Amino acid sequence: MLNNMDLTEEQVQEFLAKQDFPPMKNTRILQAARGEIPDKLPIWIMRQAGRYLPEFQALRKEHSFFKICQTPKLACEATLLPIRRYDLDAAIIFSDILVIPQALGMEVLMVPEKGPVFTSPLTLETYNTLTWENAVNRLSYVGDAIRLTRHQLEGRVPLLGFSAAPWTLMVYMIEGGSPKAAMHARKWLYAEEATTIDFLQKLADVIVDYLVMQVKSGAQMLQLFESCAEFLNVEMYEKLMAPMLKKIREGVRDKLLQENVEPVPMVFFGKGGSHLVDIPIKAGFDVISIDWITDPRSIRSRHSNVTLQGNLDPCAMYCKKEELVVHIKKMYEKFGFKNYIVNLGHGIHLDTPTESVATFVETVHSFM
Ligand SMILES: Cc1c2[nH]c(c1CCC(=O)O)Cc1[nH]c(c(CCC(=O)O)c1C)Cc1[nH]c(c(CCC(=O)O)c1C)Cc1[nH]c(c(C)c1CCC(=O)O)C2
Asked: ipTM of the predicted structure?
């Protein structure tokens, strides 16, 4: 892969103007998503381009988090870092779920040691100040980053795009950062139902346009993050969020077909969502990504054809090498090798030893 940081602005623009992408050399992840059996078990890692990598820390010393997201050359570089280092089977575009609230007019800062902080969390009083119109146009930098990265990957592995689901975005916007119990957002669900439904529908519409734009820019699979699944019971999730998941799954496919673009597999990840996995499956998601609490066999017994993704406890990465291999093998025995994409059960932690990532990838690839 080219050294992306040496690209001049003219070269970046030339890549962005090119129509065809390099031919694919590895499509294991797409095969598994479609229910085919690849030559090796595919693996990628949530938050694979993150602070556990010294090269990412070096990049972060030079640039703020959102500057990296907003500059295609830097986002591309961050995306490629884990691919240069490990034999992973997918890249995921470097960005964040919170770029949507930014495009709606909210200010989000990434505060060291604290994570994301909204300077003015959303209230009923400020709800009408959100700028919905043309929101996806303000996210065109993500499309440019995807397009550039597809070229720079040179077909080595597929590139994933992503968004958060409406509920997770709603929680972050109302709570103003990483939630403890999402008390304020849950209060809206019960006390402000009409505003809530309006809000969720508008978010779903933006998410559809955003994901369609990502596929048209070159994303080959999409992951919808429901990182706040744990805060809702099945009844509330079914009533308010099931229609949104359906709207997103079907909306993305239908809009792509209308524009003669081939639809791509869609993954649903619900953190703390083992109680509601049947809902995204019913909505038509091709792959269900599960956290480390969820037993894959309980889903397989009900839905034999759905591809599952996950679910090593990110803290297993702190084991000694021999023990880590045992945990990986135990996980694999529960999933089986068909309809399976290996991943962690949530994002990799920032102090994860880089050798554990190498062990994880090598062990998984040695299975078949
Ligand atoms: C909830 C959520 C967010 N962002 C995301 C989620 C959903 C997944 C999940 O449940 O964890 C998704 C995300 N965030 C990031 C990616 C990039 C692609 C990847 O490598 O997976 C993806 C897919 C980069 C990031 N997003 C963030 C970092 C670290 C920030 C930094 O470098 O300062 C990275 C690499 C910051 C971020 N962004 C967010 C939080 C809570 C934090 C702070 C936590 C932390 O610091 O690890 C919001």
From this structure: 0.94
